[in-house]
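Exercise 3.2. Students should predict the tertiary structure of the chain below and write it as structure tokens, then compare their answer with the key that follows.

Predict this chain's 3D structure.
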Amino acid sequence: MEQENRKFNIGLTAAIVVIALLAGAVAYLFKTVKERDKSLEDMTQIFELEKQEMESEYSGFAVQYDELQVHLSNDSLIHQLEKEKMRTQQLLEELRQTKATNTAEITRLKKELATVRAVLKSYVSQIDSLDRVNKQLAQENTQVKQQVTKVTQEVEKLTVEKQIAEEKVALASQLDAVAITLTAGNKRGKAELKVKNVTHFLLDFTIARNITVQTGEKTVYMRLAKPDGEVLVSADSGKFPYENTSLDFTAKKVIEYTGEQQQVTIFWNVDQYLPAGTYTAYIFAEGVMIGQQSLELK
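Answer key:
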């Protein structure tokens, strides 16, 4: 009986040990499963955060492509940027449809993201380079325009100065009539102011000294205008060239000019009716009017 009790106790003890071991094993297994589940949950959260960051980066790249296109005028480059933007948007859509736990697909899209980042960086660098070149060209264009403007202004200034100089030379090299007197005379050869008694006119003047004028034979013309402006002419009158036309002259005289002061008298006989009023004599030589004088007749 004692031996049976001992066997029973030994069996009971063994059963208790086995139960205890089983309980421990179950507890350890439960703990392990729980820790694994928690680890999987943590990993899922990490994958989800990583996916969100990738989505944000893809979206940012798409926006950057839009911003880059705004400042461009190169159609070819704009087309390339649009193409890369569409590719970025397509990858973004693929990422949104991919579960965070799909590590293989996430890894692929992460590699694609790195490629997109590198391509965008290259375009940014290229556009910055073009922008610098454009600014340099714009600056050079501005400088060239300023230089052209400056040269144009200098040429215009020189042209004006040349014109003024030529006008001065022309004025300096033309004859000049001074001390001009216009006299109406009667048949007795005396000065007359009553128009009905006038038989002739005398125009006296001095050709001033001018060593810049070419010496030689010169023809001096008198245009004697009546009060109404009509020029008096006779059988001995004619025309002389003036600018782009020709003018009537009343009388003329040929002189031999030496460059020194010279007295000149032009005579004209009246052969027609003369009204009362102011008569004006205009003196021309070598296509230029060199003086004038008036006389009032009653």
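Discussion points: The two ends are 190 Å apart (CA to CA). The chain is about 55% helix and 25% strand.
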